[in-house]
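Q: How would the structure tokens look for this protein?
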Amino acid sequence: MQSVAPFVAFLFLSLFALSSSGSWLQELPAWLQTPLIRLRGLGQGQAPNADEIALADYSDPTVALRQRLKTVDVVREHKTAHALHAAIGKILRASGTQPKQVVQHFEAARDAAALGADQDTLLASHLDLAESYIEEGRASDSQHELTVATGVLADHFAEHRSKLNRLRGRAKFELGFFERALGYFKDASDQALQPQDKVHVARDIAMVHVCLGKAGEAVQPLKGALDVLHAVHKTNSKQFMAPDGTSLPAATQDSLAADVHFHLAEAYHSDVHLNMHNSAFAEAHYKKALNLEEKLHSSNNKRITQIKRGIKFLDHGVGPELRCPRQPLVMPGTEARTPAETMKDKTFITKMNLLLAENRYDVVESELKASLRKHSHPYKSHEDALALNMLGNVYVKQGQYSKAAKQFRQALHAAIACCGARNQEAESAYEGLKTVKAELTPNDQRVASAAINIYFDKLETAGVPTVQGAASRNDETSTGSIQDQHVATAATNTFVDALEKIGVPNIEGSKESQTNEGSIDSQRVATATMKTLFNSLEQQVSVPAIEASTNVEPIEGSDEQQRLAMAEMKSFFSALEKSGAPTIQGGSNSDVVEGSSLDKRLAMAAMDSFFDNQ
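A: Here is the predicted structure in token form.
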């Protein structure tokens, strides 16, 4: 059998650079931690040589281990294979990257350990793999692995018992059985021997309390974890390595302390509404956790992002983003005890907007769907319409137009059902549906058009003038508010109808293809043109005057817009002259647009009355 001496030397050289970062060491096998720490201690106070500098700059500490692994015969050298796979898996886990590769290496380490006779190594391999399954979101696979681990007859089973029960609790927690998880965690706490085991289980107990809505009960175990770390720090200050193995590298202490402070911040953050001082406590612990994380050589970027998000949520009065699994149904047809947030809560809307600013569309989608599940179909409330519109906009940002159209249609129905067609959410749903319509399939476009037509019908029923004719609805390109567009377009159509009644030839581009394009200023110019016509008709053909508001508003818009409007007037006057109708006198100097939107609607009604009498 090939000697393992070269491998051991190669392994220690590869990992020596990691000894400067204790957060890596806590994830390495126990048999590797102590020698590496001693190697680091021997080098303290000495200038590093060229080889040490090269190793310190080594970007991927697993490269050397992977290269050695290629030369290993797993069947003949199963101990070496196990050691390599376990080391690579723990290094990758500590880095927080490549979770699938972590699982693969721990599976290989377990299989290699199964070829040997060391039952303690086999049990430890099962536990490492079970933990990686949990981190990969495979709680059921973790449970199966733990069941197998229970049957391993290890010589030092008591040393593994705390971790075994803690992982049982983690699996139950991820599956939503919080109370059962808490029982396992308490057993693990009583059985814990090593400082890091005590800290980890205290964190897990606190996590369950927070998810159960009992954040106040999470504080005490976390403070106990800080006491454990403080005792370890005192031990380290007296001697380099305690004989009982209860000491920890300084960086490992900082990593564990950062984790505890983060969970303390979340606990206080969850209870801000109960005590005004909790906000200050939460902020202090967030900042302490952030300082410790940033000080680590191998800082966890994911955790740093979580801490910064917690501070931002706290500043905006939004609760913490807890990682609590959904609990299974307690009884058929009943939800678990933790209620979903809804759009009735203004802080929930703020939270959604903050998440959207980070482009976390998957989280926003999940949260909005959870809030909608609290209501039955068909949706009929203002909160439903608001959530559906927001969900539709999420899909638009992702380019999922068919899904977006569905949400906007449902939002339109909900807004009309609860609050009428004039509601802001109804208008927002209409605008969203109109925006995505061109991106839909022909069949989906017909469905969208039908929803828009129903919306227009509801507006008409509510007394808001709307576009007449399906062609106008399908070709609508106006800008400005919905009601202003409807008023302006309805006025144009009424005007064209009136001309036909008095024998004026139909102007090309009548209401069958009429669109009201341009800015609000352009619409005012067009309305002023019609006003000039009506004034001239009063003077030359004895048309009864239309009552108007005394509050007049001068034509607005650029010189180019006004010139275009006057050109349209001249073309129209020429058509009137050819048909034998009296020529209209007057120019742009007297053109005015009268009144507010309400005044305009009243004026349009007067016009309709006038034309009916002709």
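The two ends are 113 Å apart (CA to CA).

The chain has a mean pLDDT of 74.

Upvote if useful.
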